[in-house]
């Protein structure tokens, strides 16, 4: 029986061997990282080594890395009224792009009437003119724009957005969860004031995330209170094994980044060329710069839920454009924000590649799509 092909890397990645080894070693430690004895100090060492690895990878200072339970919690921690930079008053409202992850669209701790949506273009890229107009009409804002969209793979103009936001006296949060390990990301180069990351998107374990804060950002209030962990920014005993795995995954992902990105781009282009030639398929965000590993496509009459099941029966794991926590396929809010009809949004299928994706996996995916295109769209 053929080995299954995994093409849902944007949802989660396999655990890297280096991360697994780091976690196994950490499981053998008995100490609480907040304890001052030798056992506690050894656990603390693993946490701080991982903190240093992530800080180095994204151009931050270790003291400004806050470990959380996931990227969702990191986003919730970042979206906080009252944040302020070295100059300027505290932010009083939140502006988010219409294609953000659900954990950002939820608005964190901002009241609903203090949250506004920034439009995106038909290609799924933030409309910077709309951003400027919204910033001009109101008090200082925290703006949240992702580095790369998890569905389309479209890269967002975060550098330009940072300049616009700062000129208006605001702050910029970047959800960089899909960017880390796929494209270079440096918080200083981007100009981000806060950035969020997740371990399981780069070969680390599920259940570990991080918020990275730029130097000089003040007013960050913890979501979880009751302990002094993470320099009083996130209460609760640290997940030592998970954090150690995160650090190991960051290190290997950054080392492999140039080769990995080039290889993924080559495979993605090959996949896209094959998809386009079958059943009148089209690629979303085709005309803009995208992640090297992500393809979101549809075809006339295609139903995503049926297609995902069809691929699965052929031994290939893919996803729809968006899925809720219950696993039920939902129309993509990203494609709706891009201006596509709900019927089109309901037909989006995402294939995302990773470091162990092989040319033969692409061949099998295209063969499966040929079969599906000849059956699903003619039935």
From TrEMBL:
It catalyses: (sulfur carrier)-H + L-cysteine = (sulfur carrier)-SH + L-alanine. Residues 5-362 form the Aminotransferase class V domain. InterPro entries: Aminotrans_V_dom (IPR000192), Cysteine_dSase (IPR016454), PyrdxlP-dep_Trfase (IPR015424), PyrdxlP-dep_Trfase_major (IPR015421), PyrdxlP-dep_Trfase_small (IPR015422). Pfam families: Aminotran_5. One of its GO terms (molecular function) is metal ion binding. Its cofactor is pyridoxal 5'-phosphate. Gene3D superfamilies: 1.10.260.50, Aspartate Aminotransferase, domain 1, Type I PLP-dependent aspartate aminotransferase-like (Major domain). This is Cysteine desulfurase. PANTHER family: CYSTEINE DESULFURASE, CYSTEINE DESULFURYLASE FAMILY MEMBER. Keywords: Iron, Iron-sulfur, Metal-binding, Pyridoxal phosphate, Transferase. It comes from the Bacteria. Catalyzes the removal of elemental sulfur atoms from cysteine to produce alanine. Seems to participate in the biosynthesis of the nitrogenase metalloclusters by providing the inorganic sulfur required for the Fe-S core formation. Belongs to the class-V pyridoxal-phosphate-dependent aminotransferase family. NifS/IscS subfamily.
